[in-house]
Each structure stands twice: as structure tokens, then as C-alpha cells.
Amino acid sequence: MDWDEFAHWGKHISDWAADYHRTLRDRPVRAQTRPGDIAAQLDQVPPEGPEAMETILSDFERIVMPGITHWQHPRFFAYFPANAAPPSILAEMLVSTIAAQCMLWQTSPAATEMETVMLDWLRQAIGLPTHFSGVIQDSASSATLAAVLTMRERALNWKGNREGLSGQPRLRIYCSTEVHTSIDRAIWVSGIGEDNLVRIPVKGPLRGMDPAALRAAIQADRSAGHLPAGIIACTGGTSTGSCDDIAAVVAIAKDEDLYTHVDAAWAGAGMLVPEFRDLWKGVEGADSVVFNPHKWLGAQFDCSAHFIADPESLVRTLAIQPEYLKTHGTDGIINYSEWTVPLGRRFRALKLWFLMRSYGLEGLRTRLRNHVEWAGELAQKLDQSDAFELVTDPVLSLFSFRLCGHDDAAQIAFVNRLNDDGRIYVTQTRVAGDIAIRFSIGQFDVTKADIDFAYDVLIDVAKEF
Ligand SMILES: *Cc1c(COP(=O)(O)O)cnc(C)c1O
């Protein structure tokens, strides 16, 4: 393909993109294909000769699009949102075009310097104090892994990377029973081992870990000769939005000299709104905080904002060249690949710059506030209906509910029926052992009318049960 053809198809694709978004409500939200349907339509051997872009694109429409679940559909209420606001898409087009590998400052100074400034914009936006520095990780899973590795190295007096874990005391990490599976995986990958992840029971309306139980678990481990290394707290757990009492957790961590990581992957975006910040009161005392602008905020995947109170300990854990420790922060140059597990880095700060400038923080806050308000209204309406009862109250824009008078199998059948119907998309979770239907509002273009429509669909489909 030459660049004249590229220009032609590039215009075609950006027109297609605008049409796609304008007509998204006409499509079923979740893909309606069965396993193997798409693979069966793909040639089993690669082509020997060139094919025309016209043919490739028409096959894309015919074969690929039916197998897409439309995450940008305004009536996507499943999981958490993975938004891609139009200015973010435009920035990603530019980034794809330039295709720079931004692992070191000198491999694209603009990417590094913009990352520093954009993470500081985000820091201000969510109300973290100035002692936090930020880095973009590809995902919250990676940020949590980096934090767990830092906990490990700090507890082992920086010997783990060199000597391994054999012969060391058992490292212990604490979290609630409500944390995301990315915490389990960070514990596996770091070599600490699942048996050393201590899950503290939760209590209270926000289902946060019981501080007294946390303190007792740490004491018991010390008595047993284990080595407590850190605490992973959560703000806005994936299942029902559970929130730990961060101030209480941080106070215990300080008493016990433990490193604290706060996983606010979804809920962190909500912290742009000052009146929601009570949910993570005390966060200023944490060592590490992650939130995903690629979820609720509108910067498309991947873009995970990782804030660290003491970047030296992270760099000391992950930097492959120890001499960087000596110059870090003093010569004005940051090589962000020293802050992350992967070496290679995309230019991910550009979409944040485009996004925040295009909407302004107030434009983003308006969306967040609307979603929270609509979630509250819908939860109440469902609870008042004869068909449904609320299981967990909204935390920001996430709540769970179930069909009244039905067992778990019926709740799952209801979710499947809704998703086969295609007008809305929801997923289920388990709360205290029982199935509940999760409802998460946060797609960038969702309107109040979409929420009213979702209520009608829920009532309509419930009649079959
Ligand atoms: C989504 C989510 C994660 C994982 O985020 P990735 O960026 O996909 O790794 C972790 N924790 C919570 C609370 C989440 O909601």
C-alpha cells in the first residue's frame, strides 16, 4: 500500500468510525455469535498474493463485526466501562501513525515529558497531594504487580531480585476478600504464593476489610515468624464496589511499617468529583495508588495511572541499571521503562492530553455525576418494583439486584436472556454466596433515556420469569 492509498482508506475508515458510533444503538450490545462461528469463516491458510483493501474491509464488515461485543454501546452496563472518547481515538490515530517506542526519555522526549505532566494533571484532578509521582502502566494488573514486587523487595531489604525467595521468611500480604483477581496473579507472579495472601473478612455497608481483624492477622503472622510486607486496599471492588477504610488501613500500615497499595482501578475516575472522595479518605497516606483512565474516564485502553509516593523504591525494584538510582530525579531525565515491568512503551499520554483539553475536567465531572445520579435512581426504581430487589446499594454508579423469589439458576437464566435479547448488556456476580445481577453505568455517551430504556427492558424480560 502506498501513502496515497493510505490517505484514501484512512478517510474511509474515519467516516466508517463516525457512522459506527452514530448507529451503535441499533446493534445488539453483546455479540450474538456462537463459539467457532467467526473462526469458521476465516481462511485456514495465509494468502500467497496481495488482496485489495476493498475486499479486506468488506470481509471485516461481514465476518468480524458480527463477532464484536460493543463496548462503546451506550447501553453497555456489564463489567466496568472501557470508554474511548472521540478525542482519545484521534490521539491514538496519531500515536499509531508516529509509532514511536517510548522506553527511554531520548527515544521520544515528548512522550516522557508529556507523561510526567499528564500524570500530574490527573493527580491534581483526583485530589492526591503533591508528593505523589505518576507513571502510565499498561493495566492496573501491571501496576499492582509493580507494587507487590516493591513490597517484596522492600521487606527483603532489596535482596529478592538477586537471591530469590528460598531461604527467606514467608512474606505475607494482606487484602480483603473483595479484591480483584489481578491481586492473586501479582502474588503468584511475584513468587510470594497464594497461601501467603491473607484475606481479611469485610464488614459494614461498604464491605471493607475489618481493621481489627487486619491488625490481629499481622500480629499472628509476626508471632509465627512470618514477614508481613504490605497491604492491598481497594476502593471500588469489581464485584459490588466495596471500599476499604483507607485511613484505618494506612494507620495500621504505618504502625507496622508495611507498604500500602490502593487498587481504585475503576472508582479512581470518580475521585475527579470532590464530593465522592470520602470513599477513599486517608488515601494521601498510601504508598501506591492505581486507577484506570481507560475505564470510566474516557481514555481508551490501555492507560493505567499509577501514583507512587516514593518512586525510588519502585525504581530500585524494577530498574535493570542500578546507576539510574544515582541520577534519577536529579538530571531532569526520567526513563519510565525503569518504573514498569515491560521495557517497551507506547506514547499513551497523548490521549490524556487530548481528552482533558477537549472536555475540561468539568465536562468529565458532569458525566461522572450523571452516571452516579442515574444509578441511584434506577436502583431505587428496581427495588420498588415487584419484580426485583436490591442486593447491594450503589457505590458510585455500580449496584446489584436480583429477581425476587427466584434461585441462582433463574438469575443466571435471566442474565443470559437479557444478553441474548441484546438491547442491554449486564453481567452477574456473587454476593455472600448468592448470584446477583450487576449493573454498572459509565459508557461515555449514555443518556438518561438509555437508563429509562434499560428499566423497561428489565421489567419486560422479567415477565418471562
Ligand atoms: C478492572 C479492574 C482491575 C484490572 O484492571 P486491568 O487494567 O484490566 O488490569 C483491577 N482492579 C479493579 C478493582 C478493577 O476494577
Q: List the total number of helices.
A: 15
Give, in spatial order, the strands making up the sheet with the most strands: 1-9-8-7-6-2-3
Into which percentage range does the β-strand content fall?
5-15%
- The structure class reads alpha/beta
Q: Which molecules are bound in this entry?
A: pyridoxal-5'-phosphate
Largest sheet: 7 strands, mixed
Kindly report the CATH topology of the domain at 101-346. Answer: Aspartate Aminotransferase, domain 2
Q: Kindly report how far apart the N and C termini lie.
A: 55 Å
> Which whole number gives the mean pLDDT?
95
- Regions with pLDDT < 50 over 5+ consecutive residues? none
CATH superfamily of the domain at 101-346: Type I PLP-dependent aspartate aminotransferase-like (Major domain)
Overall CATH architecture of the domain at 101-346: 3-Layer(aba) Sandwich
User: Globular, elongated, flat, extended or rod-shaped: what is the shape?
Assistant: globular
- The Cα radius of gyration reads 24 Å
Number of strands: 13
* Range of helix content: 40-55%
Output the helix-strand order: HHHHEHHEHEEEHEHEEHEHHHEEHEEH
**What is the name of the CATH class of the domain at 101-346?**
Alpha Beta
Structural descriptors:
465 residues, alpha/beta, Aspartate Aminotransferase, domain 2, 7-stranded mixed β-sheet, 4-stranded antiparallel β-sheet, 15 helices, 14% strand, globular, binds pyridoxal-5'-phosphate
Describe the protein's topology.
Layout: H1 3-22, H2 53-64, H3 86-98, H4 109-125, E1 133-137, H5 140-155, H6 160-163, E2 171-176, H7 181-189, E3 197-200, E4 202-203, E5 208-209, H8 211-223, E6 227-234, H9 246-256, E7 259-263, E8 288-291, H10 293-297, E9 304-308, H11 311-318, H12 323-327, H13 349-384, E10 388-395, E11 398-403, H14 408-421, E12 427-431, E13 434-440, H15 448-462
Parallel strand pairs: 2-3, 2-6, 6-7, 7-8
Antiparallel strand pairs: 1-9, 4-5, 8-9, 10-11, 11-13, 12-13
Helix pairs in contact: 3-13, 4-13, 5-7, 5-11, 8-9, 13-15
Pyridoxal-5'-phosphate (PLP) binds at residues 80, 139-141, 180, 182, 234, 236-238, 263, 265-266, 292, 304.
